[in-house]
């Protein structure tokens, strides 16, 4: 009899394959790599440093800019990270399921998958720890207060930063999967997103 792990992996991989096929069929790949001309040299250097730090050399340098561009960003020609976010969520779901399938009882598996795919507080704090919040393009709900505080030499946290960083982290995984393949995405997820424990990948 085939194991529960085998069936779970087949179902999840089939779902991810179907989604990837639809993504290409709708020619969304072309949209994913559409240049977003929104950079200053200083910010571009930050993106370059981030990619070098985590060994993320994309075939299109604009991809990391799109990863960091939230839909709230007020620039009409900027490609946002929504599609990459959606793809990344599915990829994380696959490998989180693979990781936890034999580690937690069935009744807790759903919770663990939700924690690492939907819980933006969890994902956002991981993203902030990686430094993604320093690279984001977005418009905080309390933007006026943030600007005023900065002008006065003070600092307040932009409202929604954790959530936006969580979406950017999922988008980053989507970009890695799209540009560098499943193995690279899996390695990144196991190394930086899932709990730090010795696991054969």
From TrEMBL:
Transmembrane segments annotated in the record for this chain: none
Domain RNase III per the UniProt entry, residue ranges: 47-181
GO MF term set: ribonuclease III activity; structural constituent of ribosome
GO cellular component: mitochondrial large ribosomal subunit
Any one GO BP annotation for this protein: mitochondrial translation
Pfam families attached to this UniProt entry: Ribonucleas_3_3 (PF14622)
Superkingdom, natural source: Eukaryota
Protein name, UniProt field: RNase III domain-containing protein
Originating organism: Rhizophagus irregularis (strain DAOM 197198w) (Glomus intraradices)
Lineage of the species this protein comes from: Eukaryota, Fungi, Fungi incertae sedis, Mucoromycota, Glomeromycotina
């Amino acid at each position: 009899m085939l194991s529960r792990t085998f069936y779970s992996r087949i179902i999840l991989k089939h779902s991810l394959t179907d989604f990837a096929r639809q993504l290409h069929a709708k020619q969304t790949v072309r949209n994913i790599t559409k240049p977003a001309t929104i950079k200053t040299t200083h910010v571009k250097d930050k993106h370059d440093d981030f990619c070098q730090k985590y060994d993320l050399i994309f075939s299109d340098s604009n991809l990391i800019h799109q990863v960091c561009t939230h839909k709230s960003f007020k620039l009409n020609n900027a490609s946002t990270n929504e599609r990459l976010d959606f793809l990344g969520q599915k990829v994380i779901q696959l490998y989180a399921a693979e990781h936890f399938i034999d580690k937690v009882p069935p009744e807790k598996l759903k919770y663990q998958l939700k924690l690492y795919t939907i819980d933006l507080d969890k994902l956002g704090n991981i993203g902030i720890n990686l430094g993604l919040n320093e690279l984001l393009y977005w418009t905080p709900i309390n933007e006026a207060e943030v600007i005023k505080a900065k002008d006065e030499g003070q600092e307040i946290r932009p409202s929604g930063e954790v959530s936006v960083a969580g979406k950017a982290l999922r988008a980053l995984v989507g970009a890695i999967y799209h540009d560098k393949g499943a193995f690279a995405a899996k390695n990144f997820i196991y190394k930086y997103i899932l709990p730090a424990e010795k696991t054969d990948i």
